[in-house]
Amino acid sequence: MALPDGFLRELRDNNDIVSVMQSYVELKRAGSTYSCRCPFHSERTPSFHVYPDTQSYYCFGCGAGGDVVTFIKSIENLDYMEAVRFLAQRAGMAMPEDKDDGSARFRQRLYEINRTAGRYFHEMLFSPEGKEGYEYITRRGLSQHTIKRFGIGYAPDDYHKLHYYMKSKGFTEDELLSAALLARNNNRVYDKFRHRVMFPIFDTRGNVIAFGGRALSADAPAKYLNSDETFVFQKRETLFALNYAKNSKADYFILCEGYMDVIAMHQAGFDSAVATLGTAITPTQARLIGRMGKSEVILSYDSDGPGQKAASRGINLLTEAGVKARVLKMTGAKDPDEFIQKFGAEAFAHLIENSGGAIDYELSKLQNGLDLVNKTEDRSAYLKKAVVFLAQISNPLDRDVYISRTAETAGIPADTVRFAVNGEISRQKKRDKRDQYRNLVSPRNNDKINPQSAKLPREEKAERGIICFLYHNPDKLEHIRKNLTGGFATDFNRRVFEFISGRISNGFGLEMTAFNEEFDGAEMGRITGILNDFAAFSHDIQALADYIKILNDYSESSKNMSAGSMSAEELLAFVQKQKEKNK
Ligand SMILES: [Zn+2]
């Protein structure tokens, strides 16, 4: 959907790039611009620049760039419309499509549908038909109180039962499809959840917004099935049981992998347990957690390989969102549910108190497979890996603590470790500088965005000159069009040029935000680079004439080059044209 120009301008005006970015990175003012260390690649010296004038940013290290929408897209991992919605919400603006205000009523209707379906599933659990579901959850040790509190239910083994029931309550097929309770296949609709134990998913205000279903038959295609995303349900913004956990007295959240883990924990008294919905934790969820005023998150994931990998990713995301995190180390059980069943709640509480911090966890992972006691070569292998990791810890005090700890673990004097870490830090600083320099001098090595640039460096540069000129002088579009007979030589720059000219001729503004509709994140970076590259290009009309001449010459020469492959008629027509031109 193309958003109205006026809306985009308002969105941009209400979301000043500097103030939006300040909640993600630490900006330092440098004259009229700001800089910081790039949030999109790892570096020690800041090469990430923010330009309030053009409301854009550009990283000279990795080429990331764009406007406030591009930034939100990348840092929140959202698509274009989601990022726009995110910023609109931040600024308290209504989205253009919401303005007719059917949306508020629609939202209420979806809540109503989910509530009704949730009650139906819950009742089914206690009916003769729901026996299998009821047996499953009681076998897992859930009490009556827990079943009621979480509204657990049962979806019958039937393709239409829910549909007929909901119809009798006055809900239409379209509405049920919008709520993702029905699915459609070749024009036939059927109940999406069948023969499953059902877990309602609540938002923080207590509305049922979706369901998760646990299959009861072994041959079901998916053991766990979640509702598809709907108008009221966005997976990446939702955490299971957060509606209860946010009110817990505990000053930490316990982040689990699945519904059953969470429910078992609540039943055992750990009422601050939450879960993501079958995915790794997203930045939005990490910040949602950060906003809830608890001091820390304890990751309680399965002890298998994938679970531990997810834990390690989760730690990074939470730390980036400013949330303290640590990982629960479980032995003797594959997941928290099993642990509590086997060893009891008290043992689990003990586990929580004694779980290590994120850095400890990462450091201890580096020891995997190494024998630090008996093998000198293993000790030095550990030290090498640890030094690189320790050099990443930005707080010097923290760094020192972990340097001593590493020294102890490896049986090496602390001064030796510190010396190695400092060496690594200055090496990293040098490498950052070198990368920045390289990108400035020859940014087009192995260029994935514009692969033609390597073969046509002169033409490509001229094209950037024209784009930059046009962006800052939109009134010169006609002049450029008239003189640029040959057109652009590289496809990517041609796309950019045509996009800009298209907007100018249709009377639209050149807000960077609009570019996001057409170009992806990496492309946005390149475009921002071009548009902010004032220094590299002259802006007088003579320079423009030079750029245009380069492209016109190229176009002529490539025509001549291909003359050899022309048919006799084509060749004749071509010669005729050349004659006319030379008259
Ligand atoms: Zn970067």
Q: How far apart are the first and last residues' alpha carbons, in Å?
A: 49 Å
- Biggest sheet overview: 5 strands, antiparallel
Small-molecule components bound:
zinc ion
Find the count of extended strands (DSSP E, 2+ residues): 16
Measured as a percent range, the helix fraction is 40-55%
Mean pLDDT: 85
Number of helices: 25
Structurally, the number of domains stands at 5
The neighbouring-strand order within the major sheet is 1-2-3-4-5
The 3D shape can be described as globular
Which structural category do the helix and sheet elements fall into? Answer: alpha+beta
Question: Rg from C-alpha positions?
Answer: 30 Å
Q: Hey, roughly how much beta strand do the residues contain? A: 5-15%
Uncertain runs: none
Question: How would you sum up this structure, described in words?
Answer:
By secondary structure, this protein is an alpha+beta fold. It has five domains: about 5-100, DNA Primase, Chain A (Alpha-Beta Complex), CATH 3.90.580.10; about 105-235, Alpha-Beta Complex (DNA primase DNAg catalytic core, N-terminal domain), CATH 3.90.980.10; about 240-360, 3-Layer(aba) Sandwich (Dna Topoisomerase Vi A Subunit, Chain: A, domain 2), CATH 3.40.1360.10; about 365-425, no CATH class; about 450-580. Helix content is about 50%, strand content about 10%. The chain contains 25 helices and 16 strands. Strands 1-2-3-4-5 form a five-stranded antiparallel sheet. A hairpin with a 4-residue loop joins strand 3 and strand 4. Helix 19 (about 455-470) crosses helix 24. It is globular. The model has no long low-confidence stretch (mean pLDDT about 85). The protein binds zinc ion. Zinc ion binds near residues 40, 59, 61 and 64.
